[in-house]
Amino acid sequence: MLEHEQVLHVARLARLDLGEGEVERMAGELSKVLDHIEKIRELDLEGVPPTSHVIDVVNVLRADEPTPSLPRDVILAAAPEPLHDGFGVPSPGAA
Amino acid sequence: MGVPPVSDYEPVIGLEIHVQLSTRTKMFCGCRLSFSDPPNIHTCPTCLGLPGALPVVNERAIHFGIMIGLALGCEISERSLFHRKNYFYPDLPKGYQISQYDVPLCLGGRLGEVRIHRVHLEEDAAKLNHLGASGRIHGSDRSWVDFNRGGTPLVEIVTEPDIRSPEQAREWLILLRTTLRQLGVSDVDMSQGSLRCDANVSIRPTGTTELGTKTELKNMNSFAFLERGVRAEIERQRRLVEHGEAVVQETLHFDPVSGGLTPLRSKEEAHDYRYFPEPDLVPIVVGEEMMSAARADMPAELPADRAVRFERDLGLHADTARLFAFRSELGDYFERALAAANGSHKNGGLEPAELSNWIPQLVERIGSDADPASSNVTPESLATLATMVKAREVSRDAAREVLTLLVKEGGDPRAIVEREGLGAITAQDNGLAEIVDQAIASDPAAAEQVRAGNMKAIGPLVGHVMRETKGRADGGEITRLIRKALGL
Amino acid sequence: MSDPIDLTAAQAAERIGAGEITAAELFEAYRARAAADDLNAFTWVADAAPESNGRPDTPLAGVPIAAKDLFCTEGVPSQSGSKILEGYRPPYTATVVSKLHEAGAPLLGKTNQDEFAMGSSNENSGFGPVLNPWDHGRVPGGSSGGSAAAVAAGLAPWAIGTDTGGSIRQPASLCGIVGLKPTYGACSRYGMIAFASSLDQAGPLTRDVTDAALMLRHMIGRDHLDSTSLEFPGEIALPSAEDLKGIRLGVPEDLTGAEGGIEPGVRSNFEATLELAERLGASIEPCRLPHAPHALSAYYLIAPAEASANLARFDGVRYGLRVDGDKDLVTMYSRTREVGFGPEVKRRIMLGTYALSSGYYDAYYGTAQKVRTKIAEDFRSAFEQFDFIVTPTSPCVAFELGAKLSDPLAMYLNDFLAVPMSLAGIPAISIPSGLSDGLPVGFQLAAPAFNESRLLDAAYALERAVGFDGSSARV
Fold this sequence. Notes:
Helix content of chain A: 25-40%
Strand content of chain A: 5-15%
Number of helices of chain A: 3
Order of helices and strands of chain A: HHEHEE
CATH class of one domain in chain A: Mainly Alpha
Oligomer: heterotrimer
Largest sheet of chain A: 2 strands, antiparallel
CATH architecture of one domain in chain A: Orthogonal Bundle
Number of helices of chain B: 17
Strand content of chain B: 15-25%
Radius of gyration of chain A: 23 Å
Distance between the termini of chain A: 35 Å
Strand order of the largest sheet of chain A: 2-3
Structural class of chain A: alpha+beta
Structural class of chain B: alpha+beta
Number of strands of chain B: 18
CATH superfamily of one domain in chain A: Glu-tRNAGln amidotransferase C subunit, N-terminal domain
CATH topology of one domain in chain A: Histone, subunit A
Largest sheet of chain B: 10 strands, mixed
Distance between the termini of chain B: 64 Å
Largest interface: A-C, 52 and 64 residues
Number of strands of chain A: 3
Radius of gyration of chain B: 29 Å
Shape of chain B: elongated
Number of domains of chain B: 3
């Protein structure tokens, strides 16, 4: 049900570099799962509102008061590439 | 069917504006906002997108959002939701931006001549800095991210495509900025990035209603660049169409230095943001309490209303009324001068329209971006000068000289007139009648023309007298005397 | 004196309070056992008892907890069972862990789990599978497999896990212990490495119902850092019921009906437990949950969709694994995530991304959220006539390692009895109700939202009657 091209497209959206064999396997596995899941589309859900929030609460708000930030050395300690007091990455758009 | 000539195309422009709110803390966490602090000192698990962190909405951002909606005449949604907008980029720590999608805070509205489509709240991305000579993305290999800015509350304002010229785009953006500044919700400084503007531009045959393919011009960071960028893009599209080519939907960057437009690589290849309601937040329900609180914080008069009052109640010309309202520093100065004029010159008080003519004169001398209130010319002295002209104590031309001197040295206009001997020469002054006779004698041809009924010929005669009196005599007075001398 | 590890947490707290043993002794007894763990239940064990230990004045008196790997614990590895976070030490601690710590329960160790809480067997961990203490050739269940195995084997007095679609209840069932998923919103999610935001809930895995009540009492409460956490009405009472007189139990045949795929041994145990309940005075009637058979499908659209967004932050930029950082940005992202995530996680990210993608949102994610609304309605209707809904917790007992790995769908089907309660956000508990072929079977009770105290009370009465002895797993 899920074509090779579709799997590649979704993998691109999800930034997953699937290997060739993986793409095939994924197509098969996902198709099987989707076949099972598809059945809910046969239900009559006319006029049923979707649950976008489980709890029945609104307006959970925070006062505009500063709270302590993390020290820079702490956050950079986990960085794969600390650079210039920040987080280094390959430049977007660089080949 | 032939292609209509280029001049028969009209531009259709819509603006997408991002405004950074001047709250104390970020949209979804308690980190302080900063604009020029050292990198990465205002972060926490939430705005860094650390595993396990969660967002909590800043109530002041909602308050400011409602105020903006009220100022723009929008309908404030009773219930609005936050959505996740999913894409990958280094300045987006969670791999999604918390924004609003199909249930935004405000819908509809209008500011001046432009209708508003929607207004919503979202969080700002972090700052991506590029290494390499120019600091620009092209030609750099390594970049680094500063998360101080990430999470700053943003309001996004989207207009309907009601704008029809680059000038109008610029003027309207100025109005928006003045309005927001008066609300006190943002610094709205384009050079600092607290006001950012993208433009959607398309063209269509004049008189049609269907929209053409639009391009998006991103991030023009001054009013001048906005106008120039939009103008350049309109021209580019017109030329394409003239050559029978189609406009391609794309995102462009305008380089103000070269005046060129270059396509930008898109952030998200397929532009599939996969929006879904943010499960970590609950809906915002705007009730009467929040509305009242917002209304209570609104200023008494917003620029668009001020423009109406200037035109309707004070009798200013429409363009002048808008200029003074949209540029509040001019309007404020003008009103102070008017108060001074009507206060101290009760007899035949100065008409607001008459006074208003002096503001552009002042602006010309101090520079179009300067604030008259910080010049050497106080509103009181401008009012005095204008009153003196009305009372024919000084000619219009002489008054202009006085204004120039006031700009240079400040002080009292009367004192300057006295000192420079610029007081008006009137018919009562003996010398004037002689000068008039001299003028007629020196140009009998012109005099003959005037006697014959050709009033245009009086120009050179008036000019002669003006020169001889060094502009101290009033032009209207001179004309009257010449005619009398010629027996008309 | 008997071995302190034979005490339940409540009993141990009492003994410490009475001065019969010290918290330090208790901690060390468990620490030594955890360090010698041959079930691969732990990903990290404390080196020594904490300095500020031994606080007999606190409610939990120093009885230590094991916490599932996905709870952020400052300075201690918190990896959510994934290689993409291998060795990651967060700069902050999850609220529920802090609360328990403040109540007197220090951290003994972090437990192994299915990667990013996705799985029902703990075979999806980036750090190896966990073994079931009842049979080392079998799975302990998942995703809180490490927590369940640790408690069942007596390597920790009690543990916290998370339940998104059964991940506390199912491993509790397979390991013969108690596991409770509270009402959604009862416990803060701040500091819990997220799987599915609208479903994840922290909860206790314990030896008995009293311990579960005791731990839950010190976990609940509104947290200003979690917008979806709620003020819990009232306190959690410690259970004391001696019977089930006047209690109406509903059996949802839409789930437990013959075609449900429940193993014969599990089914006969379920029926025997129902008889026991009747003898305690409960009335048993069938009840309808007409949309419950579709809960699994809805769950496998909603949870992966939310997960696909929650896991987008694992991109090699700010923390965790980075692969090919010297290549271009898109390659770095894609290779990092390809290498760092295991196959089940990738499957669910793909499923979730697809379900949200342009053109498919309405058909998949949108439809699933409507089914969810109906399921919640079904439970609300059922609770008008019944106090609790009861089912077996899991359709099967612990299966062999590797038995279901080749068929993801078969693995997902393990969850069909637990998932409806997750979607409805209602509390549910699993208690051990006996053995089938020598392996534990679990009995599930579900209650309306915020009815935890009543739920615990009923479970307690039943637990007493069942008299399950799990000590043989604590060798």
